């Protein structure tokens, strides 16, 4: 992969965000800012990612931690500006922070407070991070490819959609709406800045083994049943498989890709 620059990742304390941090470290990032609401785990992930950096050959990398609630725009601005100040620039932003929930009985029984929380984290949080990061990226010079030295991009932002950004499933009112919203945000913002060298894409994971899907026996059971009947590859994805898609969309190998949604879902959405 071609990611020699500086990355900022939200939701970095768990699951896919954590796997993204490790993959950026392995694949050559010069610095990685880890953002999450969960401070204690974030500190553990910092140690893990730093170890990953020391294991690779060549340049070292710097890992910074920011405890942030992505629903709070002031906190987001401070963290994004703080990371850019420490690193001198921001090349890749990964919006992985997210929450999922089911509403028993569907839309008419969904609590408005639950709807608001999911929209606030998944959609508005993504908007806050994108807005703060894009302001910085648009002012910087393009990064050079670590492979052939060509000027690649001023910045690349990867937002987290989902297979539920393309289809709907029962009892997933707020989550499905939030992920459709993330794809809309990605498309419009990508067009706003395509000519300025800022690329904005979405990754849409299918059923993936992370704490989001495995922490409750009930959720895991439902996942396994769905996977057996609806995923052509017949298995859940791993966080590392999703991270590989994120690093592709972030780096030089995707230099002509913007405004798209990459489905990493074992074939789920082709049906
Ligand atoms: N796991 C799946 O099957 C799957 C499928 C499709 C999409 N996704 C999406 O991938 C992304 C990562 O999910 P995951 O499976 O790794 O989940 P996860 O629960 O393992 O990790 C999510 C992280 O987001 C953080 N977070 C939650 N609210 C936050 C807030 N307000 N501010 C800052 N951080 C906050 C959590 O602390 C956690 O560390 C999410 O956007 C999710 O919707 C996951």
How many beta-strand elements?
Answer: 11
Q: Show unreliable segments.
A: none
Query: What is the assigned CATH homologous superfamily?
Result: NAD(P)-binding Rossmann-like Domain
Tell me the strand order in the biggest sheet: 3-2-1-4-7-8-11
Q: Rounded to an integer, what's the Rg over CA atoms? A: 18 Å
The CATH level-2 architecture is identified as 3-Layer(aba) Sandwich
Give the termini separation.
30 Å
Q: Characterize the quaternary organization of these chains.
A: single chain
Instruction: Give the class-level CATH name.
Output: Alpha Beta
Largest sheet: 7 strands, parallel
Protein traits:
271 residues; alpha/beta; Rossmann fold; two-stranded antiparallel sheet; 11 strands; globular; binds nicotinamide-adenine-dinucleotide; oxidoreductase; SDR_fam; NAD(P)-bd_dom_sf
Task: Write up this protein.
There is one protein chain. The protein has 271 residues and is α/β, with parallel strands linked by helices. It has a single domain (6-270), classed as Rossmann fold, CATH 3.40.50. The chain is built from eight helices and eleven strands. The strands form three sheets. It has a seven-stranded parallel sheet with strand order 3-2-1-4-7-8-11, with helices on both faces. Strands 5-6 form a two-stranded antiparallel ribbon. Helix 1 (15-26) packs across helix 8. It is globular. The chain starts with 5 loop residues before the first strand and ends in a 7-residue tail after the last strand. Bound molecules: nicotinamide-adenine-dinucleotide. The site of nicotinamide-adenine-dinucleotide has 30 residues, from helix 1, helix 4 and helix 6.
